[in-house]
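Q: Sequence in, structure out?
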Amino acid sequence: MMPLPVRSLRALVLAFLLTLGTGLPSRAGGKPGDFDYYVLSLSWSPTYCRSAGRNADPLQCNASRPHRFIVHGLWPQYERGWPDFCRSKTRDPDRHTVSGILDIMPSRSLARHQWRKHGTCSGLSPEDYFDLTRQAFEKVRIPAAFNTIDRAGKIAPDAVEKAFRLANPGLHDAAMAVTCTSGRLKEVQICLNKDLSFRSCRAVDRSGCRSNRLTVDPPLRK
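A: Exactly. Output:
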């Protein structure tokens, strides 16, 4: 059998990559309020602070009481894909509204970005969106072990999921994902119905970290 010319081989590879791309979630804008469920993304703050270094938000990384899990965002989702940057007639959040969320989302720029990218798709006002974000955060009980970590350690992603499952009756493995970056714990993403009850989300679950072990860094001390 004659080998394919290089040009033909490249065409085949490109065609294959394009077929893979058709399965990726859409990031196109959507209609506010028209979505299926939420993802509450909880970010392990020490990982962000270490990776961002001098560029880290001082409100998050130089706090007198170091942050552990914080809210990255509350994201409207479709069963397949998600909306973002929706065209909304609601105004941007004012300073008072942003200040009200800083204890669990300790970055003004992050809060404003989350509103523009995700909150505009919720169909809610900024005040109601951040109120719902707080309700979602307060619904999830953080496993006690993560509130007392004071030195770096290793853990399997499945063990992180198990800890959250045991701390939250009704939450199961197919309703969350643990994500990582450079071998370190990055986020725990939890799927919620619009009434904030736990629900399965296979697409999110499949996106979890594939590493066997993760490093969990302790909070930085001033």
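Residues 139 and 196 are 8 Å apart (CA to CA).
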